[in-house]
Amino acid sequence: MHVRKCSLWAPSSCVWNATENPVALPGVTVPFVTKWIDYSNKYGFGFQLSDHSVGVLFNDTTRFGLSADRTRIEYHDTSGKLTVHDASALPTFLQERYSLLKYFAHYMDENLTEGGDVVQPADAAKKKKCIPFMKRWVRTAHAIVMQLSCTTLQVNFFKDHTKLVINADRHQHPVLLYIDEERRAAAYALADVARDGCDDSLRGRLQFALSALGEFVEVELKEGA
Fold it and tell me: Domain POLO box: where (predicted)?
């Protein structure tokens, strides 16, 4: 087999074509967005994660996160400073944002379906030290691209509802999660994809994701993030 070596974060042209995908990783899960609501014309962008924590990136760039057990709130102000609060003893100045977050969460629970059939470990939420927050997002004609603080880039494709998640939280073994049209999920070692290639369906989506990742990296460099 011809092997083309390349960096994991190389340009999208480095992802070469193969007749099939690498062997999937058994029992591997990564955090990803299962539901989202774009209310940026008025308030901001709300989302739910696979561990059932929820968050909002408000239009003023503040960020608000609520833990899966609904007891802990994490608030990032406009400077990025983090404060942690008990949901039952929230400061007055955060009450309005909390009400909006609960509204978003209720809407997503009542009106949106889960983004994929991925079973998270029962203690996944307990192991997290911080609630992942939305760093930035962009919506195009074909997809929505979301970058989370937990070293996750996610692309949801509108036409067929497939999803691609790149997670580098496992520093030595970055993971690629693909959720297909039937909501079936498969996780691959990104190193395996870079070494062995992948099929046409996954390759095209990965090219799009890597291109978006490159643009986000440029934004972070300009912002000094």
Answer: 32-110, 133-218
| AA identity, residue 109 | D
The strand order across the sheet containing 82-86 reads 33-39, 44-49, 54-58, 63-66, 72-76, 82-86
| pTM: predicted TM-score of the whole model, two decimal places | 0.84
Domain ranges of the chain: 33-114, 134-224
Return the DSSP state at 70: S
DSSP label of 151: T
Q: Cα separation of 55 and 207, whole Å?
A: 28
Question: What are the two backbone dihedrals, phi and then psi, of residue 211, each rounded to the nearest 5 degrees?
Answer: -65, -45
Tokens in use for 168?
Answer: 């580098």
Per-residue pLDDT of the chain (225 residues; tens, 9 = 90+): 333 333 334 444 456 667 889 999 998 888 899 999 999 999 999 999 999 999 999 999 999 999 999 999 999 999 999 999 999 999 999 999 999 999 999 999 998 877 555 555 555 545 557 899 999 999 989 999 999 998 899 999 999 999 999 998 755 688 999 999 998 999 999 889 988 888 888 988 998 888 888 888 887 777 765
| Half-sphere exposure for 57 (CA within 13 Å, toward CB) | 20
Tokens representing 108? 């997503």
The dihedral through the CA atoms of 106, 112, 113, 118 has a sign that is negative
As assigned by CATH, the class of the 33-114 domain is alpha beta
> Given this chain, do its domains 33-114 and 134-224 carry the same CATH topology?
yes
Alpha carbon distance 26, 4 (integer Å):
25
